[in-house]
Amino acid sequence: MSLAAEAFVSQIAAAEPWPENAMLYQPLREDQILLSDCASSLAVQAYLRMLGLPVRVHCRANAEYMSPSGKVPFIHVGNQVVSELGPIVQFTRAKGHSLSDGLDDVQRAEMKAYMELVNNMLLTAELYIQWCDENTAAEITRPRYSSPYSWPLNHILAYQKQWEVRRKMNAIGWAGKSLEQVYEDVSQCCQALSQRLGTQPFFFNKQPTELDALVFGHLFTILTTRLTTDELSEKVKSYSNLLSFCRRIEQTYFESQDRDSQSGASDYSKGPSLM
Amino acid sequence: MAAPMELYCWKGDYGLPSVDVDCLTVLAYAKFAGAPLKVHKITNPWRSPTGTLPALKTSEEGSLSQPSKIIIQLRKQKYNADYDLSAKEGADTLAFVSLLEEKLLPALIYTQWVDAKNYVDVTRRWYAEHTPFPLNFLLPNRIHSRQIERLRLIRGDAILEPEEQLEKELYQDALECMTLLSQRLGSHKFFFGDSPSSLDAYVFGHLAPLLKIKLPNAKLQQHLNSLENLQQFCTNILLLYFPSDSREAPSRKSAVHSDGSDFDNEPHKRRNQILSVLFAVAAMLGYAFLSGIVTIQSSRSQLDERRHDDEDEVEEAEEE
């Protein structure tokens, strides 16, 4: 997300309405996409559905290399390309679609803080489990990540990516953590989210915000993805209000909309549903 | 627990109890929780038990160096500043600490270690002046490259983007983060009521260096200065919990400030240019000496002794 481009985008974006043929790109759903990418992609889809903006999901083996920031997912709207949830939220706001306009200043500060909590702990934990737990990396992550490529490129790319992620963990002080500690962190994060949610339907009462989309994306993906062990999803499952929160969003924004829409938009979730 | 735990931190300056973000956070938390620590303020990280600063040396658990781990350790010893918080406030703490780490910390690293002018004029100077002799040549550069690497990995880029664009992106996030913190704080004295908690320690640790260390490129500082409640928040904590450090402030601060502005502009640049030209000339002359002229000189000195070599030497000289 280059900033100059972003400023440019926000200027001209306001003039154009949301087109019918907006597209969202992500890696191949069946064979390639990883837990963390899938979660981010689902978060963006949930966000756009909450706004009622139509988007068609396209799976591309080279989505990561098509994206302007090197991260998936990204959306292609009109003649503009925007990647990741944060910039996409800004982009839609420039077009006049926003979920968080009803919040006051303190609530908006809290919303941003919780979004960073999810990015900082859940996303990092997903990356850690994918790439730094050797079992998961060998059995799931490396084969999936490199599935579109042939020998020897598949090994080179997978190990390169793994090395990069491990160095990142080093830099942020996660390298010394054991898998147990990471699960503990996930649990702590879920507990914080669960506390914040309480008995409300959404994090800020009746209206969904981008925070709800982000949390849903991550938790739903964790719940419906099979890893080598199901310890990660067990951590989430112990918070019943988060479970019903995921179910509620799935029902409201994915199932009811899919019933009356065409096939293209229905292919959202890679795992089984929560029902 | 018989012996008090020992905490190793970077030395303080500029009216701060320590110049380092993590050390400040830990120091503030220890003060808030009333933990009786034996604090060693040092300028040589190699003397810390873990090799990095801050480090907490405990009798049972060995040494710890990450701020979050140190705080958990203090909490285990019943020094808990978050005791009165409700579960929801605990959740908020976690969320806002994440916000700080994701949005403000990268900009902080950038402004202290990557921005060329700030790094050369203030950060590197401070570390070079304060670390002991052989280390002062080594350490600032090592921290510098480690911080750049860290920033690159946090951002997940293959290479860091060109400076201007990177700065713009980082600062945009950081300014937003400060505004959000200011809105959350409102007119309260601390983030959760009247007593400080770990969130206050984190916010203080991240903002106080910005407030006190005067940098030539001060965009973040300007924004912080415009948020009065945050500024007041930091000053309050300094006055209440670190009275001895904040009293030393004015003299040192003004000294650094005037140094910084002297060094800013043309003379510094021109001196560098002259130095680099001189260095280039010296290098070229040195190369010339080593490859060619040396033979002539040495042949001259040998002239008297070895007349029979004469013709060869002359040929060589002509070639040159």
Mind explaining what this structure looks like?
The complex is a heterodimer of chains A (275) and B (320). Mean pLDDT of chain A is 86; it is low at 261-272. The termini of chain A are far apart. In chain A, helix 1 packs parallel to helix 4 (85-94), helix 5 packs across helix 7 and helix 8 packs parallel to helix 10. Chain A folds into two domains: 3-94, Glutaredoxin (3-Layer(aba) Sandwich), CATH 3.40.30; 105-264, Glutathione S-transferase Yfyf (Class Pi), Chain A, domain 2. Chain A is built from eleven helices and four strands. Chain A has 275 residues and is mainly alpha-helical. The longest helix of chain A has 28 residues, at 105-132. Chain A has a four-stranded mixed beta sheet, covered by helices on one side. In chain A, 41% of the residues are buried. Chain B has 320 residues and is mostly helical. Chain B has three domains: 6-76, Glutaredoxin; 87-266, Up-down Bundle (Glutathione S-transferase Yfyf (Class Pi), Chain A, domain 2); 267-319. Chain B is built from 13 helices and four strands. Chain B has a four-stranded mixed beta sheet. The relative contact order of chain B is 0.11. The A-B interface holds A 1-4, 70-71, 105-106, 108-110, 112-114, 116-117, 119-121, 164, 167-168, 170-173, 188-189, 191-193, 195-196, 198 and B 66, 87-88, 90-92, 94-96, 98-99, 101-103, 149-150, 153-154, 156-158, 165, 168-169, 172, 176-177, 180-181, 183-184, 186.
Features:
heterodimer, A: 275 residues, mainly alpha, Glutaredoxin, Glutathione S-transferase Yfyf (Class Pi), Chain A, domain 2, 2 domains, 4 strands, 59% helix, globular, B: 320 residues, 4-stranded mixed β-sheet, acetylation (chain A), Metaxin-2 (chain A)
What shape does the CA trace of chain B take? globular
Helix fraction bin of chain A: 55-70%
Largest interface: A-B, 34 and 32 residues
Strand element count of chain B:
4
- CATH C-level of the largest domain in chain A: Mainly Alpha
- Distance N terminus to C terminus of chain B? 79 Å
Helices and strands of chain A, in N-to-C order? HEHEHEEHHHHHHHH
Strand order of the largest sheet of chain A: 2-1-3-4
CATH top-level class of the largest domain in chain B:
Mainly Alpha
How many structural domains of chain B? 3
Report the CATH architecture of the largest domain in chain B.
Up-down Bundle
Radius of gyration of chain A: 18 Å
Quick one: overall form of chain A? globular
Structural class of chain A: mainly alpha
